[in-house]
Design brief:
single chain, mainly alpha, AhpD-like, 2 domains
Length: 196
């Protein structure tokens, strides 16, 4: 249960209602993090613009790589909403969720390339507390993806950490964007599998 009331259409101004309507058209329902952020419209709009710009700007890395790295962070942090929403986005983009089932054991799995394993290890190291990123990791990733690729990877991992930690702190849970076999594992199992 959310730790803050989720604002409904009749509780927000016309501009926020417009954002809700747009989200409903795109995702079939208003994302609960948006309803929570509506308590602070300026930050809500700053976040919306930021997400749009990141979506349009993050194009150096393969979309499959971006998807699994962000998904790995969501499960490591334990954000069921992010896992649910991220799985829905992956399905809409035509990406397979088969590999999501393997993320808890990616190091031994044959479902991931050496580049993907390096990126997933970096995501784990960035998400660890304290952070465990090494110079060797950064050098290896620069060699694999270039400097812009390393920046994009770092940015996406940090952004998903912010999203997942914010949603978890506010008590926002899965919202039912995926159902049945579409979601790779029950949320609790998927999150447990990702814990170190």
């Amino acid at each position: 249960m959310p730790r803050i009331p989720l604002l409904q259409d009749n509780q927000v101004g016309w501009l926020t209602r417009l954002a809700y309507r747009t989200a409903r058209r795109r995702y079939r329902k208003v994302p609960e993090p948006l309803q929570a952020l509506a308590h602070h419209p300026r930050l809500m709009w700053a976040g919306a613009v930021h997400e749009l710009l990141v979506d349009r700007g993050a194009r150096r890395l393969d979309p499959h790589l971006r998807d699994i790295v962000v998904h790995r962070v969501a499960t490591r942090v334990g954000c069921a909403w992010c896992v649910d929403f991220g799985t829905m986005l992956a399905l809409k983009a035509g990406l397979t969720v088969r590999r999501h089932r393997e993320l808890g054991r990616y190091e031994e799995s044959t479902s991931f390339s050496a580049d993907e394993k390096a990126a997933l290890g970096y995501a784990d190291a960035m998400t660890d507390l304290p952070m465990a990123v090494t110079d060797e990791m950064a050098s290896d990733l620069r060699r694999r993806f270039g400097e812009a690729g390393l920046i994009e990877l770092t940015y996406l991992i940090a952004l998903e950490n912010m999203r997942a930690r914010s949603n978890s702190a506010l008590g926002i849970a899965e919202q039912g964007y995926t159902s049945g076999d579409a979601c790779p594992l029950p949320y609790a199992d998927q999150i447990a599998a990702a814990q170190p």
